[in-house]
């Protein structure tokens, strides 16, 4: 401990905080490193937000965010008391770790997963037990049948992009009935089935979604949870013991309008899914091995090139992708699916960088 840190709480000492992906300064970058949406947010949402930037900002926002929660409840066929909203799904997740995961017992998360989960465990003094994915990087639900203080699974998983079928999840929920199961659906709109349909059957199920990815509103910070009213009350209690107004008036107005703009949502998600399939095919042609993704990113490795070196070489060409220097995936790159033009620029840069290898392979096989 540094002497200057002597005022720090013991809980903070030794805590390893989360490192967000790089947000570069200046223009001209192709940002394929933080799974943002390449398309603009809904024009209706932008308009609604502009309309509330006025004298109304004198007043606090609705602490219950009732109008937004009603919109979300309506879209998922739930009651308003089954919906919680927060300042990005990261905050909703943090409240769930704090208020719903049984401290004193290990919380189970996949070994390759969203790296924020172990950080929340560290912050709240929860034991985090990482359950290995199988050799194909898939979640095996049977591995989660062990005493636990909660199970947290992203679906599709990040950074693999692999989806867990709803049947498998149901199988787990039928057997894991004594602790909360959190399904983090940050990427669900790009090709997975939402577990929201199971909420009225399983009171221990909490589903978390965000407007950051499929609604192109990462900068607005809006996320939400769906679950049994008793789970939602726990989250509300944490929130009201922390910050009564996590969503400001602009965020409330923008989020509601964005969720209502189905046409924009369908158009942009379909484009991203089409670009993902195009990009996966082109990466394979360049020799990459890609995991089958149902998200807005691809996890890919090149058998003949180090991921760290490739990331650096792309960076020099002003293209950012993400590399996780951690066991099992250190030789992979996580590439966000950008606009079609961005995907094409990436493929051009990679073709260039890999040309010496491609040529050598052709000579070898000739
Ligand atoms: C992006 C992401 C989040 C966080 O989303 P915000 O709503 O922007 O806080 C949560 N979980 C996973 C798996 C993510 O990839």
UniProtKB/TrEMBL annotation:
Organism: Hydrogenophaga palleronii
Reactions mediated catalytically: L-histidinol phosphate + 2-oxoglutarate = 3-(imidazol-4-yl)-2-oxopropyl phosphate + L-glutamate
Similarity comment text for this entry: Belongs to the class-II pyridoxal-phosphate-dependent aminotransferase family. Histidinol-phosphate aminotransferase subfamily.
Cell wall biogenesis/degradation found in the keyword field: no
Keywords: Amino-acid biosynthesis, Aminotransferase, Histidine biosynthesis, Pyridoxal phosphate, Transferase
Positions bearing N6-(pyridoxal phosphate)lysine: 213
Subunit structure: Homodimer.
Required co-factors: pyridoxal 5'-phosphate
GO molecular function: histidinol-phosphate transaminase activity
EC top class, as a word: transferase
HAMAP family registered for this protein in UniProt: HisC_aminotrans_2
Documented EC number(s): 2.6.1.9
Coiled-coil ranges per UniProt: none
Pathway in which the depicted protein is active: Amino-acid biosynthesis; L-histidine biosynthesis; L-histidine from 5-phospho-alpha-D-ribose 1-diphosphate: step 7/9
NCBIfam families: hisC
Keyword set includes Protein biosynthesis: no
Protein name: Histidinol-phosphate aminotransferase
Cross-referenced InterPro entries: Aminotrans_II_pyridoxalP_BS, Aminotransferase_I/II_large, HisP_aminotrans, HistidinolP_aminotransfase, PyrdxlP-dep_Trfase, PyrdxlP-dep_Trfase_major, PyrdxlP-dep_Trfase_small
Superkingdom assignment: Bacteria
Aminotransferase class I/classII large domain mapped to chain residues: 29-350
